[in-house]
Write a structure and sequence with these properties.
Number of helices: 13
Largest sheet: 9 strands, mixed
Distance between the termini: 62 Å
Strand order of the largest sheet: 14-13-12-11-7-10-9-8-15
CATH class of the largest domain: Alpha Beta
CATH topology of the largest domain: Dihydrodipicolinate Reductase, domain 2
Shape: globular
Order of helices and strands: EHEHEHEHEHEHEHHEHEEEEEEHHHEH
Number of domains: 2
CATH architecture of the largest domain: 2-Layer Sandwich
Length: 400
Amino acid sequence: MASIRIGVFGVWRGETYIKLLANESDVEVVCICDKNRERLDAMEKFVSCPRFTGFDEFLEYGRSQGMNAVFLANYFNQHTPFAIRCMEAGMDVISECTAASTLAECVQLVEAVKRTGRKFMLAENYPFSAANLRLREIVRSGELGRLLYAEGEYNHTGSPEMLKRLTTDPNHWRGWLPRTYYITHALGPVMFMTGTMPKYVSGRAAHSDVLYELRDFRRNFDGAGMAFMEMDNGMIVRVTGCTAMASDYSRYRVVGDKAGAEAGGYIGGGKVRTFWHGHTKPADEPSNVRIENADFSSYGEKGERAAKSSHSGGDFWVVQRMIDYFRDGIDPFFDVYRSVAMSAVGILAWRSALHHGKNIRIPDFRKKAVRDRYRNDCGTPFPDGEGKGATIPAALPWKE
């Protein structure tokens, strides 16, 4: 019997992971669940297992079959309640981004992990591209010196037709997602490279006339959202959320007092660029600029598999870290505390943006006294299925 007997909840995003999990010898996909029967049945070509359209039936069957883990790939703003139910049923949880959509959920998730003793990790994949892994090596080598500044830019937009297709009903989360909320693909790599945690955040957003034209089916018509942070090592960081700027790339950059390194952007592909000032250039470097190609060749057979995986290899490495954690007890970088910290940055950066950049302290959810202050903070921009319940604007106030 496989060590990890896992169920997958949500097959639209979960399809990628179903295929990866099915190729791991120590993982068995016990059952899968999605409300869309047609999409659910299409998974038969990847994995042969029972399929459910209801979560209760999925969870109960899984429990009867010794399922000990669940991959949550359901709606962005609905991970926490299902994560808690899975942990209370005796199962470890790997959750798609984001971990929590309110500060109260951040509290609930942390306390569920503590109460149940189950494992939780975030399936954040952008830190694990070849270029971002190389950036982490450069940072950890110390050649950048004392870290001063970093930035992560994640851009994702599309045609009106595509955006409408992704917004399947008037209350779908994609139509109400404030620009700073989906922050993990920008902030996650920066935290991973630098080993830091955010302490304070200030947010800004900017209105888009193009997106405002889509307001009949989407209410998040800001085109850009930014979060500016002070980290626990004193460095400063600027990241985007899921930003819809007219840009065709994501990029990452870390700068110290001796050198800076970056990937993505105009450099492109898997290239990593390191820059030194003349007086800080090491004697063995032939130039003050070093450009290198990053790939997975040093990772052997796993590197070959990663190179064929989606999201520049990131999805493959997420599965490997899940196996390391659930099977072998090797703690992941994106544990519950780092995961809720990222969620809190997105939430509080948006509240800051609504108040013209007010500086806000990021809660330390390790501390019970801090959790007590936020356990009833249920403010949310997302309506329920009946269009009710949203208490925070999804975009900056705007008038024609």
